[in-house]
Amino acid sequence: MNRRQFFATAAATGPAASSATSSGSRDFSTVRADFPRARTAAYLDNASCHPLSVHTAAALHRYIDWASKEVGEPWWPDWAQARTEAKTLFAKLINAKPSEIAFARSTIEAESNLLNGMAIQASGGNVVTNDLHYSAAIYNYRMRQKDGLEVRIVKHRDWQIDIRDMERAVDRNTRLIAIALVSNVNGYLHDVSKLSELAHANGAYLYADIIQCAGAIPIDVRAMGIDLAACSTYKWLMGVKGFGFLYVREDLQGSVVRPVQHSGGVRFNYAPWVEQPDTGLDEIAFSPVTGPSCYEVSYPSYEGAICALESLKYIHRLGVENIRAHVRALTTRLQKEMPAAGYPSITPPDNESPIVAFAAKDPQRAMEKLRKAGVHAAMRFRNKMRISPSVFNNQEDVDRLLEALA
Ligand SMILES: Cc1ncc(COP(=O)(O)O)c(C=O)c1O
Description:
Distance between the termini: 52 Å
Bound molecules: pyridoxal-5'-phosphate
Oligomer: single chain
Strand order of the largest sheet: 2-8-7-6-5-3-4
Shape: globular
Order of helices and strands: HHEHHEHEHEHEHEHEEEEHHEHEEEH
């Protein structure tokens, strides 16, 4: 298969090939057939790692075929096109401009790079976060605290963040409020507009880790007032690890957030590199990368971009509102029936995220029961059972989980 055939096939086998994914459809019954994982288990742990759809797996197989049998020059234009398209579809997903999106290798790395680029410590500013942010992000802040950065970590109250606690923590020296928009602990969805108002009223910026919600619930960075965001693709974007996206509001690029990894090239402007040196240029002239790519170094993963493109097409085709509605029916039932089965919820009622979590009295025994029944959920933080259904799950998966625990 040559490159042109590859791209033609990739375009033809997207979500359009699935009859269940016609735009605006709320019938998810045939979506299940797109995810082989649904046949091997009641897989309800998408917040850990989402399985690939057959469409994304096929795109990856085509890439592997190409990489093993055909790799070589010229290749740049075709792959560049796939990468650009993935950025555009991600921008559309969060209502950003493509010129505000960079590739990232990991959510945590992206957040760390943003912090470095904002030079908060040097300016004497502080960062406000909370204990429902991802633990590796908190670790990152704690390490910086040791280095002298002032970090304020607000504690949750009954598994929710009280905006008044955040208000008490923020002051005129706050440069950044950093949150996980949806918490990996219990799916708590922050009141992001209030946090954005709070940040902006104090001259600070709002960073949202969106890995536990991009692709699962609608995100509108403009309406929500999010200035900076990042996510990988291996959860609700149905892609692979080691690849993701970074959003930096256009007017903050290069000014408020400086690139900390130098990306670009140099031109040797002297013989024997050039016959006629350009007298208007330095001997070694810089060609910096401009736009959001200034936050990228070297080649972003092609495998990641191929999968992201295929999955983003699929998600757009299904419609994020439809995805949310489908998953909501499952989480609402879990919120009702798990407490009745002896597993009190630690997720607030009416929470709009795809994650629900429950306290287990005997976590080991509960996991044994699930394993025996071929049900996958996560047990985190000693005894918190996290259940995270997605597009391919149905009420029978929930039946299986509830029956196993009964
Ligand atoms: C909220 C949250 N942020 C960040 C991460 C880690 O993301 P990455 O592997 O992209 O750095 C996770 C992983 O589970 C997560 O749940």
